[in-house]
Structure formats: C-alpha cells, structure tokens
Task: inverse folding
C-alpha cells in the first residue's frame, strides 16, 4: 500500500518536474511546481511527517508560490523567447541532467541497494518538533527570524519605487 | 502507525531526480522567474531527502532542518522577487541574457 | 470495525455532508437576498414558492440552462480549470470538520466527521490557502484588465490576511495544546462558576476571535473586503468573463468558504457542539448537531448583516489595516496568551 502511494505521488512529482522544464510559459511552470509541492506533501505524510506536510502545503504551495504567481501576473510575463544562449543552454543542459541523474542514481543504488530496508514511520508530533525547534535549535531559530526580518526589509527597499517609498513588501 | 516498506533509496532517487531537474531548469531556462522556480525545485528535492533520512534514522532533527530550509526559501523568494520587479522596472525584460550590463 | 463497514460508513458520511453543505450553500444565498432585502426595505425573493423558498432551485436551473460562453481571447486550459480549483478546494476543507459527538448505530460507533486527523486545523489552513489559486488564475487567464486587477488584488489580499488569520488561531492552540479539532472542542466543555460556558471566547480569546473574524472576511472576499470583485470599480473582478455553471462554481466556492470559516470559528471560539442536552436518547444524540448548526446560522447571519451595513474599503486602506493593525494585534494577542498560559 505504501509502495503504491509512493509511486503515485512520485509519478506526480516526476511529471511536474519534467513539465516545469518543458513548458514555455512561466505560469504553466509555476502550476507544475505547485503540483510537485503538493505531491511532496503526500510523500511526507507517507514518511509520517504530518506536520512537515502541512507546513509544506501552507508555506510552499500556499504562500511562496502565490508570490511567484503574483509576480508573473504583475509583470505580465509572456512566453519565453528563444535566443542563441538558450539553444546552447538546452544542448548542454539536457545531457548534463541525464548524466547527473544517472550518477546520483548509481551512487544511491550502490551505497544503499534496492532491498527493502523498511523505514519505520516516525511519527512527528508537533510537540516533539516544537521541543527540538525551541530548545535544541533555539539559536538557529532566532537567527532565521533575524534573517527573515532582514529579507522583509530588503524586499521593501528593493521593490518600492525610487521616487516615493511605498510600504508594500510584495 | 505501520512502518513504511518503501526502501530509503527510492526516496533518495526521487529526491535526486528533482534536484537534477532543478539544476537543468536553472541552466536551460532563460526566464528569470522560471530560473527562480528551478531553485525552489532543488530545495524541495533536498527537503525530501531530509525527511526520508529523518524517518530512516528516527531523528526528528531532519524534520527541523526542513523548516529552516523553508524559512530560507521564503526569505529568498521575497528578496528575489523584489529584485525581479526592480530589474523589470529598469530594463523591461525578464530574459537573463539581456540583463548583461551593470549599468543602464 | 471491518474495512468494508468503514468504507461504507465513510462514503455515506461524505455523501450526506456534501448534500447538506451544497443545500446550505444554496439557502445561504437565499438568506442573503432575503435579509439584505429586508434591511434595504425590499422584500427579497417572494415569487417562487412560499417566502421565495424555491428560489435557489430556480437559480440552479437557470445556471444549468444558460449558454456556457468561452470568450475567444482567454487562455483556455486555465480558464476552464480555475473555477474547478476554487470549488474543489472550498469543498475539501469541510472534510475534517467535526459536527458532533459520535453516534452508535447497530453496534458501530460512528464519529460525526468525515475523517479525524491530528493536524485537522493545519489541513484546513493549507487547503484554504490553496483556494487563492482559483481566483488568481481566473483573473489572469481571462485576459481582461478588470479580471487581472481582481486576480492581483485577490492574491495580495489573501496572502496578507492569511498571516493574521493563522496567528489569531495560535492563541487557541496554545490554550488547548492540540491541533485536533475534536480535542479543541472537548477542552471547551463545562462552565465557569456554573453558568458561563467554558468557550474559548470567554476564556481569554476575545481579541483573538475578532482578529479571526476580520481576517476571515478578507479571506472569503466578503464586504467590507470584497475588493477582488468590487463591482463598482472592476465590473465583476475576477469572474467578469465567466458565465453559466462556471460562474456558479465561483459563487458556490465563495459561500462554501463562508460556511467553512463559520465552522472553524464555532469549533475554536464558541465551544463547537456543546449545549444543553435533554429528552430521549435519540434527541440527545442529535442535539449537538443542532447546536452546531445554530451557531453556524448565527455566523452566516452576521456575515449578511455586515454586508448590509458596511461600505467597502479602499485598497490601500485594506493593506494598511491588515499589515499595520491586524498583524501587530494578532502578535500581541499571541504573546499575551503565551505568557498567561506559562504563568
């Protein structure tokens, strides 16, 4: 049952990732990325990480990607243009990806094998995660909060018009 | 909850594939927004391996790292998209090949 | 409980919940027209059936038989997908909402909820945060300046108010120590000093409730925050180009979202299905559902009342209100609750 679900979500992930590369229009790429993220949330649920799965949907699919779509709509981004640079990039990039994938697959299979090492589903109750996050990882947590504050200020400064500063982050 | 009988290597393969797709997207795409999305795809691939290892080694710390990755991704998206808007405002293009001058 | 019984019960529950929800959506529209009509010294629908009660059926038939226009300049795949996305996400979130204790039929214990998950509240937040795609993509794919403006406004507004919405709920979560909606409701049973019910709103979350209420109005695009479809400025906002059943899908999604928001408010702040129980066992089993429904009715009435009373915000006022007033207030409420609980 787990394997079937893994394969189903995995197929959505793979299809979405390939579709992201194949589509010319950024909004289609964004939608396929959303599909990848939603399917990944499913994989996290299979791994017992339900809290991570929920946060994945809320933060990644529900906030970050909305920001992307917002910018695509705001700038009215059209189809991607074909230039000489992009042809060279495709010629080099696609074989590069295939080599990279094969290399990664080879390393992974060589060092862990395909025999069914059962992953004991680890229940990730929010309480224990909170204990780790606010106790053991308190310093990194505080540092990331400072990071995000800086990011907000940077975004406001960068995106505001030079003439009159508007206080809108996105 | 019953243990999952999916080998760890399957998760790693999927994660590696997503990461490779992200790298390729980063290389072959010319639209700056799509390039950004490829970076997000790479981060997602890495997150999957974090969670898979967390389940494999019974260490919740792997899941906590995912949160840090998400925070960094959110910060990166906010700043990056602001930069994209600023670039578009001055150059009126989203093609990275045409953003090749430090000055206008 | 065997697997077969489980599947049977789940299917029956899903069908019942879906039918009840869609009927409630239809009659919320009727209620809105009737109540707003009376507030404005009109009668509202009166012709179809007694008190216009068959008006929703007439509307539904009209929507079904209208010509389904697809304008030539739209981006077709997304234009078709957007209303479906809006409706699907709106209907999904109802699946984790409990509406009563469990009842026992023929020796099988049936919880009155489609499915009980540990992270129920997070799931609702996640699904509703995906709901913005329907609106945003509808606005973008229509290829029309009014629709695009509506979609842009919707996406910015919904991300902004989602933060305040989420933070206003955290206070309740800290108090009850669980993400499970059923446990949150169970923690609210009983009374203070014998007569004031132990609901979270009387338990220090008064401010949290009002932040939630205001953010929820913005999330569901209702007056006074209905900027995405402001008909005086944007024709009809994101659904300008939609007709027939596709338009009806947006309409249903909006009202289903209203009902979900009312359900969450009831569960988190107003004690869910707790209420006086009396009478024979069958009545005792069904009274909680009645109390739950009564509270949701009150919320929907409040929605309509606000619509009949308040004018619409300007867009910069909306953003300033969300970021500069609601968000700091939500954080203050969260900190105060945390200190009070830790004490």
Result:
């Amino acid at each position: 049952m787990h394997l079937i679900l893994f394969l189903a979500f995995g197929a959505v992930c793979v299809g979405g990732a390939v579709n992201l590369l194949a589509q010319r229009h950024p909004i289609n790429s964004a939608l396929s990325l959303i599909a990848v993220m939603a399917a990944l949330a499913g994989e996290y649920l299979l791994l017992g990480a339900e809290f991570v799965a929920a946060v994945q949907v809320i933060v990644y699919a529900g906030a970050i990607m909305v920001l992307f779509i917002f910018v695509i709509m705001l700038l009215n981004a059209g189809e991607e243009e074909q230039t000489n640079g992009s042809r060279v990039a495709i010629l080099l990039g696609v074989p590069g990806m295939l080599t990279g994938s094969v290399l990664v697959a080879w390393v992974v299979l060589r060092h862990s094998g395909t025999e069914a090492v059962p992953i004991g589903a680890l229940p990730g109750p929010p309480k224990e995660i909170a204990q780790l996050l606010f106790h053991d990882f308190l310093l990194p947590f505080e540092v990331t909060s400072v990071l995000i504050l800086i990011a907000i200020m940077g975004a406001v400064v960068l995106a505001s018009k030079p003439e009159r500063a508007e206080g809108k982050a996105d | 909850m019953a243990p999952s009988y999916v080998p760890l290597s399957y998760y790693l393969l999927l994660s590696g594939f997503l990461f490779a797709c992200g790298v390729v997207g980063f290389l072959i795409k010319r639209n700056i927004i799509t390039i950004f999305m490829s970076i997000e795809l790479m981060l997602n691939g890495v997150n999957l391996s974090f969670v898979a290892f967390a389940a494999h080694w019974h260490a919740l710390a792997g899941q906590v790292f995912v949160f840090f990755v998400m925070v960094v991704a959110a910060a990166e998206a906010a700043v990056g998209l602001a930069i994209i808007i600023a670039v578009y405002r001055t150059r009126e293009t989203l093609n990275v090949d045409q953003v090749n001058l430090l000055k206008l | 409980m065997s697997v077969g019984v489980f599947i049977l019960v789940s299917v029956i529950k899903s069908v019942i919940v879906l039918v009840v929800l869609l009927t409630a959506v239809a009659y919320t529209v009727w209620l809105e027209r009737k109540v707003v009509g009376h507030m404005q010294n009109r009668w509202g629908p009166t012709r179809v059936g007694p008190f216009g009660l068959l008006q929703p059926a007439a509307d539904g038939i009209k929507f079904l038989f209208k010509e389904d226009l697809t304008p030539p300049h739209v981006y077709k795949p997304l234009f078709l997908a957007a209303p479906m996305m809006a409706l699907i996400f709106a209907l999904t979130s109802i699946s984790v909402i409990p509406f009563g204790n469990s009842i026992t039929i023929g020796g099988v214990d049936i919880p009155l909820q489609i499915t009980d998950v540990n992270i129920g509240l997070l799931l609702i937040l996640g699904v509703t945060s995906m709901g913005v795609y329907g609106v945003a993509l509808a606005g973008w794919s229509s290829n029309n300046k009014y629709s695009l403006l509506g979609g842009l406004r919707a996406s910015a507004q919904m991300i902004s108010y989602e933060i305040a919405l989420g933070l206003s709920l955290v206070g309740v979560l800290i108090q009850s120590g669980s993400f499970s909606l059923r446990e949150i409701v169970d923690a609210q049973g009983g009374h203070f000093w014998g007569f004031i019910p132990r609901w979270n709103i009387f338990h220090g979350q008064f401010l949290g409730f009002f932040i939630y209420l205001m953010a929820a109005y913005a999330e569901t695009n209702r007056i006074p925050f209905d900027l995405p479809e402001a008909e005086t400025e944007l024709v009809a906002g994101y659904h300008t180009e939609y007709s027939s059943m596709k338009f009806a899908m947006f309409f249903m999604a909006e009202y289903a979202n209203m009902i979900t928001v009312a359900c969450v408010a009831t569960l988190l702040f107003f004690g869910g299905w707790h209420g006086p129980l009396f009478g024979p066992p069958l009545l005792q089993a069904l009274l909680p559902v009645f109390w739950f429904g009564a509270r949701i009715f009150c919320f929907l009435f409040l929605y309509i009342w606000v619509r009949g009373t308040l004018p619409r915000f300007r867009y910069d006022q909306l953003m300033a209100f969300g970021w500069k007033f609601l968000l700091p207030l939500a954080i203050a409420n969260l900190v105060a609750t945390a200190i009070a609980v830790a004490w």
